[in-house]
């Protein structure tokens, strides 16, 4: 019987090859042009779970893309860990900023990844990370090291808001029943600074449309006399923040969780180098809400960002036109206690209220999710912390992060179980960006750590 | 020898058929993908001028698209009229707003065009309008009614700023020498309210790029902590106008021509129905500079409009990204005495000055041109007014318009001749917009009016 380290040494080339095959399928859930690829990816995940040793694997249809379910029940009296992940990926554009095609994975060394990293869309978010669990299962099954029951739920709509998941959970409470949920879709502070995510921000994502004249107009004949929807949209967007970087939507901050000075002081201990941060992004300065540090701005504070804007002539050369319509995609990151539906309503009311009489505005909610904070004194957290301490050689830091995994709050509500966010990526892995990658070291470290979590969790379970 | 009316009655079906053939070629000068079509259009114009009776026709190469030159010199001692027009057209997008394909001309009746209008990109701007002169020449030559010399200069870069024309004029002063320049690239107030354009606005067209982080970022992990170039661009654009609709660029208004109360009162007499205007555009209200009427805003006052904006994710669905870059195309309409190069510099300095330290900005001038005002007591104006009075049955109204024909000022500078802007389109013809069209009545009325201009001008020339 080999240890997890020796098993990894023996099989790592195959692990990487299998992941690369998975990364070659462009499972872009946001673009219907790729729907067949998304379905094909679900099939590939099903096969991977079969081969890893699940007793029962199913592709479960939903209103949207299917959920791949797998399980290995060794003894109903033992605890059950539900592993969640997603096989869909973000759109890769802007394509021209990729050094290699997003769906033709390549391995390259970087300063932070001297052992090499796999460059491909989805490498870290989340194909590479959920696949660690598949390979960890393979080890535990083949080497008879699985100490408890395990279930997998790998979905295909995470990048578009997991629209079908609430129904799926409610219709399959029994199937999905578990004692703890384990997710690797977050990161660590650094390879020598392990951390576990204890807080996530919620999300409200809307699209706005501003209509001026009923048709595009000649800017010479009409310019300066009619409402230009692009100028109007720019003015409206600009007004959503005041001069202190506060969001101006009435009621937006009403339910925001206020942290104590102690809590903020504790958080401030996590290593963070502002100069390094600015240098890495090549920005002259940081920006954000006055009165909060950069780490607080992206973790404990709600924010509003335009994710996309378009209108008028955007092609080559010049067109002297006043557009009929202008559009923006706007997302708000929320903190615990802010309800995303309520915030979406507040945004909609406010945006309609600030529109001048000269234009018509339409606000369309895309999707959203609640924020989440997990206690650090739970059996699950302790099992994860101990596993990381074993494999990293030091205690992980509890960390709030700005990202959102909307379904974590949903899990607590519907399945009534806690979630442990034990991820192995780095912020620099460029998820959602061109040249997304995932360190080979991190990939293998995840596979090494996961079996320890199962052992620890089962040992202290009662 | 037939009159122009009887000649038109006899040949109008052919005139329309020939124009439709010309409109089928997508001569989009702003998009290099159509460069062969632009060249092909020049060839078609050459053939049309040959057939109409020019003695000498040439396709003159330039740094950009060629100029088609044609002439019929009947007697060097007689005056020479130079007809200018352009065979290039605006890009047709947004395509989905066209009721019929932009380069598949169709004739449909409208409320304003009960005799039918030709719907196609370029129908009014400017293929349909310069072609009136080609057909008027055909009549004057075949019926021996040409009273003076005529030259044609039809260019292919008007919609992208006539970049090559200054060189062409300077290199061909002799060839282009003339006594008066006649252009039909403007409109009349209504079919029962003839007008002649006596003022044009200048233009400065720039493109701006705002760069935040060096790569697209995950809005959850970075949102609220880094400069979002879209939010920054929106704020910068919004700041270009103050609460009174004045442009905030320092020095922008310094050289603006100030009209007397009398002049403004005279202008105010031109028929204009604000409620009709708002209704036709389906806008809740007009917008613009405080202290000026709508007609003044688009004629005697300079303006700034965003013609296009883009950045981040603009595709289907939602992408939680913070873009690295955001862009806008911005044009300023200028009035007499404002120098477009000077305004472009003022804009560039100001835009760079208001950029926060957190971002990098780049301003790229696209093109521009000077404004122009023509006197209404010149022989040329009187000849045009008399011609219109003959064919419309009432005196035309002198009118300032907001559009720009940058080369008019250039003509005066290089060729030292005045320009008469005798156009026959309507503001509602949707030039630069989807469903551009040109009334059959207007097309034929132009052909009918032009020979009267030649006769009047020659008669009073000395």
Automatic annotation (TrEMBL), chains A, B:
<dbReference type="Pfam" id="PF07687">
    <property type="entry name" value="M20_dimer"/>
</dbReference>
<protein>
    <submittedName>
        <fullName>Peptidase dimerization domain protein</fullName>
    </submittedName>
</protein>
<dbReference type="InterPro" id="IPR051458">
    <property type="entry name" value="Cyt/Met_Dipeptidase"/>
</dbReference>
<dbReference type="InterPro" id="IPR002933">
    <property type="entry name" value="Peptidase_M20"/>
</dbReference>
<dbReference type="Pfam" id="PF01546">
    <property type="entry name" value="Peptidase_M20"/>
</dbReference>
<keyword id="KW-0378">Hydrolase</keyword>
<feature type="domain" description="Peptidase M20 dimerisation">
    <location>
        <begin position="199"/>
        <end position="357"/>
    </location>
</feature>
<dbReference type="GO" id="GO:0008233">
    <property type="term" value="F:peptidase activity"/>
</dbReference>
<dbReference type="GO" id="GO:0006508">
    <property type="term" value="P:proteolysis"/>
</dbReference>
<keyword id="KW-0645">Protease</keyword>
<dbReference type="InterPro" id="IPR011650">
    <property type="entry name" value="Peptidase_M20_dimer"/>
</dbReference>
<keyword id="KW-0479">Metal-binding</keyword>
<dbReference type="GO" id="GO:0046872">
    <property type="term" value="F:metal ion binding"/>
</dbReference>
